[in-house]
Amino acid sequence: MKVLVTERIAKEGIEILKNEGIEVDERLGLSHEEICNIIGEYDALIVRSATKVNEEMIKCGKNLKVIARAGVGIDNVDVEAATKQGIIVVNAPDGNIMAAAELTIGLIFSIFRYIPQAYMSCKQGDFRRNKFKGVELYEKTAGIIGFGKIGALVAERLKACGMRVIAYDPYVSDEKFKKYGVEKVDFDTLLKESDLITIHTPKTKETYNLISEKEFKKMKKGVRIVNCARGGVINENDLYNAIKEGIVAAAALDVLEKEPNFELEKQDYYNPLLELDNVVITPHLGASTQEAQVNVAVSVAKEVAAVLKGGIAKNAVNLPAFEKEKLEEIMPYLELAEAMGKIFIQAERTFANKIEIVYSGQIDEKATTWLTRALLKGYLEFSVQDTVNYVNSQLLAKEQGIEVIESKKEESGKFKNMITARFTTSEKVLELSGTVYNNEGRIIDFFGYKVDFKPEKYMLLIQNIDKPGMIGRIGTIVGEYGINIATMQVSRNKKGEKAVMVCEIDGALPDEAVEKLKNTDGILRVTMAKL
């Protein structure tokens, strides 16, 4: 058994693998092409954040059984491509949360007191302190976007500095905010009231470019921004302009959308933000403490060894090892269950304190465990900062205060098998049902309306008054933005009352178009859902 390590990890992790009789080949700084040329020889690949493990590389890894990222996120690994190849993908979700929180605090002090700039000035023989008049944290307002584990650690430390701490995270229970003494606010309130904004959210379709020109215009003049989460959450071009315009007084970024090679001493890398004296950029140091590096290296080494020895990976991001025939049988149900979780959370954007899942028909009892985890994974991917996978989704749901109830019954009506998910929020109970036929998952009940549609990559979920002309109005607006409607499902329970419409479309509808639909007479609610 051979493992290729393409980025530096702590020696403790390497020793674990060697002690298991696994051959370890550390080859740092390789190009994408070089890795593709040799990866076919290896049973496992260990990376950090610089190596982009795309579909091409995965296809070259004909003997790969496991890909491990020594860190929290997994956005540099094509998980879908790995799953199709039957390759387990693992990470170290908890290994560096303290390191990331402490770096965030360090960068906050740096941009409030200009510590890096003052240091460089002194190094150059210029000791004029009047150039570096800072701002105190005391009695200022800190806004935290993403109130997961790291966000909560940062909140504790900022409160100790005497700051008012507010946070935006619509998917976290009120109890957690109360536990940490943090005010729960909406996104616009956070933008308008914060003297400091610090980001602790994963990079998803929903959070990509979460902060761009529109958001900067809502902020206080003189706001300071820190991002130790993921590059791409802030639009860097718009940040540059906001700094030049004087909206943002200073920024600190440990992550960038396009990052350099962290193993090379010199390289041709350019980012306009590097030109600005009031921007502090660090080379993705969030996990770079001795403790965190040991934690993540040991964690992924144990995971890799377990998989190569035929065991189960506790931090598998994708599916655990199934026999090929069994995987093919349950895959449509897994995809359906995950889609149901994603559809609910995007349609409602509210916290569910209880999720009941009922399996009807002949669904294998062993499979239902993974179906429940898949549904929770879909729900939580849009609602927590942590990396969510099929192994940890139930634990994360419990940590969020969600009661999960699973039951099984033999009757399934006219369908061979059926999955029903009942979501209880503080205001109402909503239900989704789905089934599989022709090896394809279908939603057959959408919040009490009979439908029959396949969950697709881009969908418009619309609630409207049942009256003539609605289909035409919606089709016209979507067409104005060059988006084609591939399929449309319309359902009502009673003439003239509320109806639902589910449209599969060929691409993501811009926010402007969604707002136009929302403001159309007769439309009650619009969601641009992405699976």
UniProtKB/TrEMBL annotation:
Q: Which Pfam families match?
A: 2-Hacid_dh, 2-Hacid_dh_C, ACT, PGDH_inter
The cross-references to CDD domains, in alphabetical order and at most eight, read:
ACT_3PGDH-xct, PGDH_4
What reaction(s) does this enzyme catalyze?
A: (R)-2-hydroxyglutarate + NAD(+) = 2-oxoglutarate + NADH + H(+); (2R)-3-phosphoglycerate + NAD(+) = 3-phosphooxypyruvate + NADH + H(+)
The EC number(s) this enzyme carries: 1.1.1.95
Q: In which pathway does it act?
A: Amino-acid biosynthesis; L-serine biosynthesis; L-serine from 3-phospho-D-glycerate: step 1/3
**GO BP of this protein:** L-serine biosynthetic process
Question: Which InterPro entries is this protein grouped with?
Answer: ACT-like_dom_sf (IPR045865), ACT_dom (IPR002912), ASB_dom_sf (IPR029009), D-isomer_2_OHA_DH_cat_dom (IPR006139), D-isomer_DH_CS (IPR029753), D-isomer_DH_CS1 (IPR029752), D-isomer_DH_NAD-bd (IPR006140), NAD(P)-bd_dom_sf (IPR036291)
Q: Which UniProt keywords apply?
A: Amino-acid biosynthesis, NAD, Oxidoreductase, Serine biosynthesis
**The keyword Amino-acid biosynthesis belongs to this UniProt entry's keyword annotation:** yes
**Domain of life assignment:** Bacteria
A GO MF annotation of the entry reads: NAD binding
Enzyme class name:
oxidoreductase
Q: Could you tell me which residue ranges the ACT domain spans?
A: 459-531
Output the Gene3D superfamilies linked to this UniProt entry. Answer: 3.30.70.260, D-3-phosphoglycerate dehydrogenase, domain 3 (3.30.1330.90), NAD(P)-binding Rossmann-like Domain (3.40.50.720)
Family affiliation: Belongs to the D-isomer specific 2-hydroxyacid dehydrogenase family.
Q: What does this protein do?
A: Catalyzes the reversible oxidation of 3-phospho-D-glycerate to 3-phosphonooxypyruvate, the first step of the phosphorylated L-serine biosynthesis pathway. Also catalyzes the reversible oxidation of 2-hydroxyglutarate to 2-oxoglutarate.
Q: Which PANTHER family match?
A: FORMATE DEHYDROGENASE 1, HYDROXYPYRUVATE REDUCTASE
Q: What is this protein called?
A: D-3-phosphoglycerate dehydrogenase
Q: Which organism is it from?
A: Caldicellulosiruptor acetigenus (strain ATCC 700853 / DSM 12137 / I77R1B)
